[in-house]
Structures are given as structure tokens and as C-alpha cells.
């Protein structure tokens, strides 16, 4: 552990009157879930084995079995993420094929290691899986575009294990407007409204992260089940349009919903426009998204070039303090029964000092130091997410 981190630990232990071993032991007792893992993108890389230990420095990956065990991460929602393509018949067909390929990849990961992973399709299955020492795999979708060609396919995805549906990503799609695009539908499209109702009928949670404010409002009014934001922050702390303002946080909680706090650096702290950085990094990030087709040596080289470019055009430094500012603010606004963690691992999440899932107990230590109880921590790390899953199941 670097010296600076050690000082923080010492200060925390003094503050909460507990030893490092106690924090670890408490963290291990909890069911620790993350509601937004982009790890299926890593699974596409030839030769990349989730059972082996990797490092962020070598290949920018943040989740594998050894590091999940180190960080006490019992599992989470593995996302079927689809980059938004053109809203054309060809674009819809491509998205549809992509979605089915990714859910197959997730299911194959579980099938290949039945000793290490188990797919959960009901909230009540989760504690037994955790008790058995296996990791819980839940399946979500980030961007519903794979359903645009045939929304009826939602039932197929449900049979394959889909239990959470994020309507939209960084651009508008056939169902909804994005938080980071100019309004097109001014909320949900007619197909988007039908999709929300279909998800309700199947017991699939609706995820409003990345959705515009208008979509958020319309989903909240329309959904028969409580709603989740699987990886979002507080707009009062970081004024990014992806983040939720206090009034919306309160309404989400009042309807029984949960906000899972994100660690995506540029959403955590405001960043000034930096066109040189964008110009240098955009082609590298594009290459990285295609990393599935690259051999490991080329991935390592790409990781090195990305690190160099990021260092040449640095963003404001972000640390665990920034994550905690969002987390503690949201806790203040809605209370510990409506907050969780969705850190966007393998999708751009993580900060200096918390670069992968192996260090999650640092968040537990900070929450204890802030005065939250073991029961609060149990709710925040997994209890709230499972309660919401159960309520979505019951509502259909
Ligand atoms: Zn995202």
C-alpha cells in the first residue's frame, strides 16, 4: 500500500475507532454487489481469462476473479453494452446481433466456470450463491437499441437472464433521449413507453442512468415498479447532465427507487473543455473499444499509449474523496435505504487510489468513519439493489 494511502487508513481507524482487520472482516460479512460492470467488453478479448489476475497498468482491466476476491466483490450486474449506431434498419440489425452476442458471452463465462460463477435471475437466489463462495452474475442491458428491430425480443432476453434494462446511452436511440444529446423525442418515444411497460410486466428493473431529465420524469410517472439509476452521481456535486439533481433524487427515493453511485471521473468533477486531449485520445479510445480483436501485446501497447496521452493532457485529479462527496451527499438527500454502488468498472470508472475492484473496502472504511452502521453498509452494498429486484419481480 502506498504511504499516502497508509496515512489515510490510520486516520480513518482513529476516526472510527476500529482496526483495519475489523473493517475487512465487516466488509467480508456483507453481500457486496456492483450494479454496473462493463466487464463483458473484456471477455471479448481473445486469450483474456477472467479467472487470471490482471492489472489496470497492463491492460486497463479492473475486474477479474482474483481481484473480486481481494475486494470482497460478490458479484453484480454484467452489462450488455451496445455503442449507439445509426438509427437505420442496418444499424438496428447490427445492434440486435451485438446484443445477442454479448449476452451469450456472459452466459458462456458462467457456464465455463460453474465453480466460480452462478447466474442469478431472482433476488432471493443471491445470498445462497454468495454463501457458496461463488460470484453472482446478474445481467443488465445498457442501451436498449438491440431491442429496436424487434421489441418483442425483450421476452427472449428475460428468459436468458436479463433483469435490468438501461434505456439509452450517450446518444438518443429509438426508445429515449440521452442526457448527453439534444432532445429528439422530448422524453420517451412511443416505443420507449411500450418498452417500459413490457419490462414492468416481465419484472425487469428500469434503469434511468444516461437518460435525459425528461425521460427520468416520464419513466418515474409510468413505471409500476420502483426505478433504479445503476451508475449516476449527484448534480449538486458535479454539474454533469448525467448526474441527478436533488429534487429528482428525492422523487426517485419517494417512489422506492435506488441510486447507485458512479466513479466515472469526468462525471465526478467538472472538467473544462480540452479539445487537444479529446483529439489525442478519441482515436485511442476508439481502438480500445475494438480491443477484442487485438492480441495481448498490442493491447498492452495501446494501454501504454492511452496512459501517455492521458498524462500529457491531464484531467483535474480525482480521488476517493470525490467519490465520497457524491456518495455522502446522496446519502444525506435520500438516506441509506436508497443508495448503492455502480462504479462503471471496465467502462471508464475508477480514480487514483481506487483503480480496480480489489480496493473496495476503502469505501466501507470511509462510510464507517462517516458514522454509517453495519446495517446501513449492508443496504448500500447490496441489500437495496436486491430489494429493488425483488419489488420489480413482485410488481409484474
Ligand atoms: Zn454508462
Automatic annotation (TrEMBL):
Keywords (A to Z) from UniProt: Signal
UniProt protein name: Dipeptidase
Taxonomy of the source species: Bacteria, Pseudomonadati, Pseudomonadota, Gammaproteobacteria, Pseudomonadales
Leader peptide range in chain numbering: 1-21
Pfam families assigned: Peptidase_M19 (PF01244)
PANTHER family in the record: DIPEPTIDASE, MICROSOMAL DIPEPTIDASE
CDD domains noted in UniProt: rDP_like
